[in-house]
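User: Here's a chain of 371 residues. Predict its fold as tokens.
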Amino acid sequence: MQSERLRLGFFTCLLAGTMLAPVAIAQTTAPAADTGVPVIVARPERQDVPVYLNGLGTVAANYTVLVRSRVDGTLLNVSFTEGDDVKAGAVLATIDPRPYQATLDQALAKRASDTASLANAKLDAGRYTQLAKSQFAAQQQVDTQNATVAQIDATIKGDDAAIAAARLNLEFTRITAAFDGRVGLRLVDPGNFIHATDATGIVSLSQIKPIAVTFTLPQDRLPAIASAMSKGKPSVLAWTADDKTQLAEGKLLTIDNAIDATTGTIRVKAMFDNAEEKLWPGQFVNAHLLVNTMQKVLTVPSAAVQHGQDKLFLYVVQPDQTVQARPVDVEFDNGTLAVIAKGLSDGDTFVLNGQARLTNGVRIKPTPAAS
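Assistant: Prediction complete.
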């Protein structure tokens, strides 16, 4: 009996502890206070904002030429290494000059012969003239000799032209660079007989310093481009195709003389010094044309501007740590900064990040944005 009383007492105590436990927990756990929606906040800044027009561009050599021979002959040698930078006038290749030297020698010899004949004809003409004065020669004979002198004189002028042509052909056996540039891959090897009519040529020569970039912009941007050009040559930035790395900075050269009616775009051309050779013919780049710089305008990060059904707005922080959706007029947005023309003041605080859980009047827990 005593053991049964002890077991009954133990179960009674255990049951009482189980029933009292929730009450004790409920008494020691207090509800969490409403601290607000955590957000990142910032103030607008006044700064200069450059206005760029962006277009996809293609890099092209400032000058490019396929070097060909202007005379027929055997290619004796090439005087360049593929990929060399060469100066204007540098010899690139040599054609066998011996046939053209022989032609020049023949022309010089013929002129010397004709010059001697002219001298003799002039002496005869003088003699006949003296004899005619004494009635010892007919006037017809004098006229015939004078005609012979004129004929030989004309022949000598033809000889001079032949000599000039022979000298020119002889010069053409030395193929030179027309401008400063870089040679490409050799297209023909020494020892081949080449012709002036060959389509392949010997090597390509391109001027890549400076280098050009041609890109297109919408036709409605033409007034802004023309306005920028009236103040000088606007700056143009060349960026990689992914728009992550700036390659070079140049100047706008010109606008095309007609709008493409099929696309409604206008082509523009910019020049770059390309001193570091980061631009290469045939390369695709993103061109950024600076047309204006907005001075000391009120700006916010583009990510802060929210899109409503019919308006743009910012969540502006109120003195009681709640937010209000305030409509704003965005004058310009480059994807990074938005220029606010109306609806925001310098001293306002706006929500930069964390807008997903916000509506008008919601309390926030603000954290200032890093600089």
